[in-house]
Amino acid sequence: MPEAISHRAARTGLYGAGLVGLYVVYGVLARRVTNVVDYSLATPEGFASWTGLWAPSLVTLACGWLLVGGWRRRPGSLDTQPRVFSVRAGVPMVATAAVACAWMAGVEVTFPLVCVALVGCAWSLDLLGRSVGGSASSPWWDRWSPWILVGLILVCTGWHAAEQVRLWRQFMLGYADVGFFVTELEHCLPWKDVGPGRFADTRLGYHAVWVFYLLAPFYSVVRSPVFLMVVGPLALNLAAVPFYQAARARTGSGAFGLLVAIAWLALPSVSRLPYANTYGFQSIYLAVPWIAGALCLGVQRRWVGSHACLLLAVLCEETVCGVALGWGVYLVMTGERRRDGFFIVVLSLSYLALCAGVVIPRFTPAAEYTRVGLFGSLGVGDVVARWGRPRVGLFLLALLAPLAPGLVRGWKVLVVALPTLMLVALLREEDYLNIKYWHQSSVLPVLFLAAVLGISRPGRESSPAGSGGTVRLGPAVALACSALCFHQVFGLSPLAQAHRFSANRADAPFQRLRQDAVAFVQDRFEPEGTTIVATERLAAHFTHYRMVYPARRLPSPAESGPACVLVFDRSDGWDPLVKSSRGDAFLERARAEGFASVCVLGPIVILAR
User: Fold this and answer.
1) What is the pLDDT at residue 447?
2) What digits encode the pLDDT tens for the residues 231-244?
3) What is the DSSP secondary structure assignment for residue 319, as one 8-state letter?
């Protein structure tokens, strides 16, 4: 009895220390917003958000269940050495409290310290979850967890779509890229007359996006940018399904699988991607559920389905060849399917060479693979210097920290992500090394799979899938809580600090004038016979017109058709002409080519030819 009491007291003490530390961490963060571009923490003027302490409450309940409710030995428990596990779990828990004390003592709050504090709590949850007894799989969860998952996916997709629509109406989604993609789908409609300028600038001049064109029949029913604002987040969120199925197959527990799916939906990186730093939709998002399916089916040794999903993922965008290459190398290294792995390596490299050297150059005036320009000079010194940039380490920390407990045990799969991450780290512009852009999209399923394999590793952790035995839910609870806590700090949703801060900001001062400019053009010019030339923020609102050109060049009368309208916003700081102070020269050239002013709305000039 004294031993049991001391064991409970030890757990309760660790629980109290970690709980106090976690509340101090969130108390410090409550008035700060994380900038995921330069990884700084700022306290914006007039921003106070003490209501954002839901995550510590959630972790409190989880800790209470694992530490207090699970201290006793139960019949059939998998408990082996609870005291040893408690000591191991206490180290990261005390680390969280130590970081909190340091902040209270005046130590500067930095992004790495935030990650250390939150990883400490998640890690302790994971270890303590492995030390308490397991429970039998519940028929109720097995029956209803798929439907709960469907509901969560719909809720997340609805939120992301609604937020994008709001940003679009406030002119915070530019023509590149969501408007460009919508225009591409418009040009696929067989009844639309797009004139000789159809292939002057097309998505195939940037990436081989074959699967994207399969969306055209569905778009023809809607014919609105909102279509891609739904498709993008839906594709990202659907990746939760293969992870749910893989976790359930490995543990035999629907509840375990659902917790894993919640962790994917809550990942900060996934929550940021639908907006992509105001770019919106990206074709690479269509590949994410196929990559997740290929990896999850592969670890279940369902090779036909795995290879089919990988093929579809590569056809979404040629940049997925990096993950395909890593997957082939992984299969060769592990000896799972050496011959298949060898063929995947050869075919992925061959397809990438074909797209970069032959297909894509045929659709761009530069006659070359222009994406190479993002890397600049790649001498040995440049490569070493870029890989050694501090921003690379912070970027990897943002990707890996929410998954840290599982990655420790599932690290071998990370070799699949290595080729892509090495290429991303070579990008010349280091501001791309953040989770607000889409470059990490193809590796997110790889990193998450490593975490899933780590928390559901067969052995003492759980009984074999389908055996009717017990399973420890603690590691899955830890992964879900970790994702939710990190989501609150630098994700983007109503649960996150960043969204509460952005929701408090005033609307752009020229929003109303832009709305009036769009309405003026739509009231006076028919879409079927009118070509639009517009600055970045405005162009995305004219995708249903005959042709849309960003304000970089003026189409000839043969290209523009019966009517051509120029909508130029001098206040649009996103537009390259405005930023380079070449807007007035562009307007003068337009007037010289026959354009005449028809309306002036503050800084917005509307001309027609």
Assistant:
1) 95
2) 999 999 999 999 99
3) G
